[in-house]
Amino acid sequence: AAAAAAASGAVPPHLGLTQVLSDPAFQQSFQASVEEVSAMKRAQEQERLARQQAEQRAAQLEAERRQAETLLSSQTAALQEALQAERGRREAMEQVLAQQEAQREMEQLLAHKREVLNALVWMPRSVEAHDRERADLEGYVNTILQAPVPSGSVVMDRQSCRGYLHALSNSWVQNLVDRWWVARWFVLSLSSGRLTYYSNDNELHARGVIPLSDIYSVRSITDTVFRIVLPSRSYHLQAPDAQAALLWVTTLNVFSSAKAPA
After folding, report:
1. Most CB contacts within 10 A, which of 64, 101, 142, 200?
2. How far apart are CA 195 and CA 215, in angstroms?
């Protein structure tokens, strides 16, 4: 009746509103609505905070992931560098060991060749003059040594042996001071039966000639130095390496009248 009166204007509006506001059911409904709105706001705030925390946690996880990737990358690079350095050290060590092994094998080979050479029974004029033109110098020497001895400083074929040797000076002028070694190009020729030496490998002007028949002995002094003994004088010669010295000593002993080396 109050609402109808308020609607028709017969009753003042505030009287109807007062009655509505004082109504227990309205008050209960209004309170429930206020609480519902408050609960919704609290839920929204909690959701916002949870979302914010989730975003912060995701950002933290992403930062940790990137940091882990950076650390892993740096550790991987350091490990690769260490492996590369270790590989380089190992290869260098293997190379050194291979060189040492090759040197040891060469020393054993040369020692064996010297033993074979010193054990031979040498007879005067091992190859007679009339057989020299038919002789195979290279094959004969290799047969004696049981295997070819490589030396890039000696050129050998069937009838000759060539190479640089250093001769110890023996002139009266040089004897006034310390004697020294002079490089000479030596040519051993079976066809001529001579050991000729020149200033260089052009072989134009001979500096001296040694008949093979005049050689009394050829003796090793060191691994690279040997001595040719003649009735009138001696030649001290130095080869570039031990292999070359072995080839020269063997060749001169076989194709000259040399006695057994001492």
Report:
1. 142
2. 10
Q: Which amino acid, one-letter code, is at 35? A: E
Tokens describing residue 147: 């295997």
Nearest to 154 by CA among 235, 236, 247: 247
Backbone angles phi, psi at 81, to 5 degrees: -65, -40
Q: At what angle do helices 24-119 and 13-21 cross, to 10 degrees?
A: 60
DSSP output for 49-99: HHHHHHHHHHHHHHHHHHHHHHHHHHHHHHHHHHHHHHHHHHHHHHHHHHH
Burial (CB < 10 A; 0-12, 13-18, 19+), residue 236, is middle
In total, the chain counts a number of residues equal to: 262
> CA 137 to CA 144: how far, in whole Å?
11
182: alpha, beta or left? (left if phi > 0; alpha if psi -120 to 50): beta
**Residue range 125-143, pLDDT digits in tens:** 444 444 555 556 767 666 7
Beta-strand runs (E) in the chain: 154-156, 160-168, 181-189, 194-198, 206-211, 217-220, 225-229, 234-238
Element spanning 165, H or E:
strand 160-168
Q: Express each pLDDT in 209-223 by its tens digit.
A: 999 888 988 988 988
What is d(CA 251, CA 137) in angstroms, rounded to the nearest whole number? Answer: 8
Residue 126 is predicted with a pLDDT of 44
